[in-house]
Amino acid sequence: METQRRWSITTRITLFAGVVAALLSALLAATVLIATHRFAMQNLIGELAAAGGRVAHEVEQNEFATPLVDRGGRDVQIVDATRRVVASTPALRGKPAMADLNPDGRKILNGTVCGGVFPSGECHTVVAQSADRAGQDWVVYSSSPVVPPYVDPWLGGTVIGAALLMALAITVIGHRIVTESLRPVAAIRAELDRITETRPDRRVPLPPSQDEIRDLADSVNRTLGRLETAMNQQRHFTSDASHELRTPIAAIRAEVEDALQAPEETSVPTLGATILSSLDRLEAIVGDLLTIARLEAGTAGRHESIDLAEFVTSECERRPKPDKRFEYSLEPGVVVTGDRFHLSRLLTNLIDNAERHAATTVAFHVRHEPSCKRDAQRYPHGVAMLEVIDNGPGIDPDKRELVFQRFTRLDTARDRDAGGTGLGLSIARQIAEAHNGTLQIEDSPHGSRFVLRLPLD
Fold first, then answer.
1. In angstroms, rounded to a whole number, what is the distance separating the alpha carbons of residues 114 and 145?
2. CATH number at 195-299
């Protein structure tokens, strides 16, 4: 592990390429030398067989003459039927038969003999051929020193040198390829080091090659873009939250300062009632901010099976007597799995919003639908739908997503005196997404129609 951390990727890949190149080059060199050696041995045996065959023919014609061979480095012996050496080349004169090979009839045998009639430490290739001499089987032995594994010093040196050069060339080329391939990574790293919180708009350079490193750079740029968007949203959210918190605090300060300057014009109950309304709003904002923080932190709740029809009925019955009429169209048996507390908060926010904007009626619809092919992964067992519809003025289609942004108010009906903190719908959507669902505004003949979709249990 220490070695891997100490060595760079370039070093490790270059070392790997060098080792593999050396092994492959050695294998190639060995293959070439083995093939060449085998070819040379076959040629040598063929030459010895040809030379011995000529002598055997002369023996059969009773007219063999010296010298028995016409090439240096070759030895020949003629052995009669009693294993007596009748004739031989000068190097083996006076020595016994060079081998025990005994060809049968016209067969030709070959083998390797080390030592014996040959100098100590030397091995010779021997070819034995039979010759018919006056009805007797004579044997003609022809021999030559065995071909060394490298065949020839010049050939062996050439093959080994070429293998070394090839291994070196592959290693150098591998090092160059790795270095050039990782050069964009160094540029990406350098640019990432220069990106700071004050310059989140910087992006890493895209290499010209269409490869995995370009995909990595593109992915990094998309991630940086999302981070920049998140940072901007965080700044805007902080600014909006500060503004929203400053308003009730300023109202409390103004009431207290007025009471201190003119104590005879106010009373403790009047001052307390005025301050409490601002404190209620301050508490609501802080509570919503804490809820958003918990949702963004992914705090796990207790999930249970919830029948949406019973859930909507119980939540509406728990509310104070509304000044708007509630209508229900609830399909029984539409069951989802979720956190009852969070889903209760979601429904409460939708009802509060609908009551503020409805003219006379708020309608609740619960039903289930089969999931389409596009949403089969999100809703494997179907879709549970909850609709909250009011008969108010409605929301323009181009502003439907805007209402889910934090601290957003589209008109005077959504001002601070109408109740709410400007965070309710944003929290509702976050809860829906935390349950792997969606919350959006869809078309309606009149008013606003909020549609919640959750995976069916």
1. 10
2. 1.10.287.130
